[in-house]
């Protein structure tokens, strides 16, 4: 399997070459040259597999530069009941007639990002050992990504993590999750500033090419193809749990921010998994809902990007969206460049409303969308608690609301549960008047010793810290 760039760079790369990379050299995103096709007989075989075995089968179609026995061992080591809490790894339960919740957030940090990041940690360790290389991961987080990366990379050989976060702005639970890690290779850096300051620092450090090379700086952001690929697996696992045979379609609703999660659903559908509809659920930051309703993709500025009660979906632009649009415009890199380089660069938006391609987003690719507000989230959390004695987190609540607007008789609707309620306790308290129960292993974490340094919002200070803490 070879990988190409959405923007038309002539080079073709293999999986392990793009594993440790971010963007392609021309600024595009990597995609496989074609989507491997899965037929009904294969689905029937896969239905009986454990999650780790299923992951191995799917990853094998995309990875041909890791020996199969090694890849199998990596999958077996990643997807265990010890790490993810159950043998099913992503257990499905029926909430009401035809509406299901697929639990993706029983990993170490209680959000779905663990599903991919845990695999990435093991792939990184394997590939770095093979190359005799080291990597220093520099990131910016307002919560879920940073903690998932740290729990995936802690104690891994060849990897260090330098994670910046805005000082005092994460929830106490999120801070405790990250700062209580005592592993020598994990560095928490609290920046005096806001999340944008952290992102600017990461950009400034990455743009210093000499520094980047000398200190082998890498990232683990959501455009990484390996992360997306890992997420394809739970669409298959959800499908198998929601059906008893392989001829019936299923729909999925996905609480969305950077379009990574739902893009994995798109890939699963392109492979031939019988998915009828992919519902993109957004909050007040509705860049994606607007596109699927109108055909206009309009990136938001800082003032139009809202801080909401489903904060992991607070985005101004959706960094993985270019992958889907590439397929939508028939994989034509010249058209893609016109939209993402010329139009977005010039106007901050592009308009496909009059283009026949836009109609295909729904007709051929199955996309629908929905949007919710803070009031909707509270109402959904209350309603789900009252009618089904089930607590959902604010992101999953956004999903449930959008899902109910897109139900189709006889087609199971699977809503992806992207975080556990305890991570966003303040909103649960606002909705229900009480704190959600906390998993045992997180009892009292706020009182644990914290390992964090405070630095000013200054890229030079962060560079000096990194230099001092590499070997
Ligand atoms: C990251 C995240 C999302 C958004 O996922 P994308 O892949 O960026 O679309 C939704 N919910 C939670 C809880 C998250 O952490």
TrEMBL record:
Domain Tryptophan synthase beta chain-like PALP as annotated: residue spans: 92-330
SUPFAM superfamilies referenced in this protein's UniProt entry, alphabetically: Tryptophan synthase beta subunit-like PLP-dependent enzymes
Domain of life: Bacteria
Keyword Chloroplast: no
Family the entry assigns: Belongs to the threonine synthase family.
Enzyme class: lyase
Modified residues (N6-(pyridoxal phosphate)lysine): 113
Entries under Gene3D superfamilies matching the protein: 3.40.50.1100, Threonine synthase, N-terminal domain
Cofactor: pyridoxal 5'-phosphate
Organism: Variovorax guangxiensis
Name of the featured protein: Threonine synthase
Residue span(s) of domain Threonine synthase N-terminal: 2-79
Family matches, as InterPro entries: Thr_synth_N, Thr_synth_N_sf, Thr_synthase-like, Threonine_Synthase, TrpB-like_PALP, TrpB-like_PALP_sf
Pfam families reported in the protein's UniProt record: PALP, THR4_C, Thr_synth_N
